[in-house]
UniProtKB/TrEMBL annotation:
GO cellular component, one term: nucleus
Single GO MF descriptor: zinc ion binding
Region (Disordered): 1-28
Protein name, UniProt field: Uncharacterized protein
Keywords associated with the record: Metal-binding, Nucleus, Zinc, Zinc-finger
Amino acid sequence: KGHSTDAEPTVVPDDVGADPEAPGPTETITVHPGGALNAQFFIPGLEHHIPAPASQPPTSHGTPPTPLPPVTPHNVQFSGGKTFNIRDLSEPSTPATPMPVLWPVAATPKSNRRCQHAKHTTAEMPNIPDLCPFYEVREDQVHCIFCCAQKKSTSFSCSTMSTSNWWHHLLTKHLGLWVEVCDRLKVKITADKAEGPVATYQESKGQDPKQNSSLPSGFDRVPGFSLEAFIDALVAFIVSNDQSFNVVESPELHQIFLMLCEELTDDDIPHRTQIWKYVQDALGKISFTCDMWSNANLVPFMAVTAHWIETKEVHPPNGTDLIGFHHVPGHHDGEHLA
């Protein structure tokens, strides 16, 4: 089991409020961030209900073993998250029927032996955050951990390491579990074909599909609109793309802004002089350079110099200052410095 309490779900039986002494099946799902997600199912209180082995003689009264109670649907609730049902995975979990199912497995000594004692070699998995936690490599096959928890066999060849079939399996068989766990792990689903079904599933759960939109790598989530955020984004666009300050005076650009946001007015769009002031007040970056040399007595030294741009003038000069000067013992060749 994982040691991260944030990732562990709480199991909520459907029959909450029933007789507390009556035994009932429970389930646990343990999430290992950065590794495989293991699903194990325990039925506490049912040890005396487990049928005796065939080799065991019948009791003196000849009474047959007590059958297991019928399996009832359960809800799995991640800490601080939504509650979703776990029923039967025999049918695909689609946007029309988004609730996934997992039938509990009796806690017999051999339960899940194949999954529990399998040799994990997740280091061979491709480093894909929304895919790697849900599969494990055993020998030359990649196994779905959701199916493994149900004592089913769903595997793919890892000879080519093609991930399209792996994504398709999660999308068609375990959509609900996949989305819920990725949300809990704060992992973005990046599969191209998954965008539509994932958005439909999130809408059916009352969630905002934009929270899992396919944004480019390294792109932050889009913040809510505010005048301050709008100006910051405009300044960042001008600086990062080396645009002229006059670009904000374009009537066509104003039309785009006003069309995209009904709350925005033409007076809210800053002029070039305002943009220039915002850029002047923006935090700058300091660059560093290092230089090493030896004096006439072959004593090595190292100097660290900081470089920045002054923003007090319209055409600011470059600023430079020595911020470090140290004696370096030994030779300053590459091998010694490394």
